[in-house]
């Protein structure tokens, strides 16, 4: 399904209409699409999933300036041209494509809000040729210093800030809950030490973050 009419027909079928300006979320996973550039008229899209298709380029995505999360895993994309004007993009998954060399990531240099980038998904055995370089991980971090997460692994600072904010919240709540003081001086402190002392996958980090939230909920009950 490569022509614009075919893609628009799919969206009409799923949305019940095709009022392009009103579409905020689209899941077009596994639709055998070879071209999705006609989605450029959906200017208010916030979340777009195009995983597991046959796309080779996304040049028409430059109009999607409201886009915050874009999933393009398992396609045949060899260039990210078109994303440089997606100024609100925060999460991008392009694992399992044909991106070669750091130059293929050049459009991302303009995206100051980009926090999470996935080029290699080990769990699903998806990667890109540029990931074959032994220094690619460090090279990507050097070129995109605002990233908090690369290939589903925390790079440190983003998670540190989240943990610190929760630690401060726990300390404030302790001042108003003396009966729970012994409990809160043990468990949260152990969690924080464990979470900040070594590299964690994003999944483990989220578990510890959620556990801190549970500690706060126990305090306010």
TrEMBL record:
Quote the protein name from its UniProt record. Uncharacterized protein
- Origin organism of this chain? Rotaria sordida
Cross-referenced Pfam families, in alphabetical order?
LRR_4 (PF12799)
Give the matching InterPro entries. Leu-rich_rpt (IPR001611), Leu-rich_rpt_4 (IPR025875), LRR_dom_sf (IPR032675)
**One GO CC annotation:** cytoplasm
Transmembrane regions listed in the UniProt entry: none
Domain of life of the organism in this record? Eukaryota
Q: Does the keyword Repeat apply?
A: yes
**Gene Ontology biological-process entries:** outer dynein arm assembly
Give the keywords, sorted: Leucine-rich repeat, Repeat
């Amino acid at each position: 399904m490569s022509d614009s009419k075919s893609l628009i027909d799919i969206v009409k079928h799923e949305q019940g209409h095709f009022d392009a300006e009103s579409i905020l979320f689209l899941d077009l996973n596994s639709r055998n699409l070879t071209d999705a550039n006609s989605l450029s008229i959906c200017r208010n899209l916030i979340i777009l999933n195009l995983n597991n298709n046959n796309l080779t380029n996304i040049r028409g995505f430059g109009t999607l300036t409201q886009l915050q999360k874009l999933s393009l895993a398992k396609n045949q994309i060899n260039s990210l041209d078109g994303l440089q004007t997606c100024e609100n993009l925060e999460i991008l998954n392009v694992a399992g494509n044909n991106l070669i060399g750091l130059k293929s990531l050049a459009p991302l240099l303009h995206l100051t809000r980009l926090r999470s980038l996935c080029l290699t998904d080990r769990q699903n055995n998806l990667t890109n040729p540029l990931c074959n370089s032994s220094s690619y991980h460090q090279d990507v971090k050097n070129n995109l210093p605002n990233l908090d997460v690369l290939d589903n692994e925390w790079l440190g600072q983003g998670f540190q800030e989240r943990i610190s904010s929760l630690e401060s919240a726990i300390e404030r709540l302790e001042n108003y809950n003396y009966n729970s003081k012994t409990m809160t001086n043990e468990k949260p402190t152990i969690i924080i030490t464990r979470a900040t002392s070594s590299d964690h996958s994003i999944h483990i980090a989220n578990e510890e973050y959620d556990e801190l939230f549970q500690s706060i909920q126990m305090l306010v009950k």
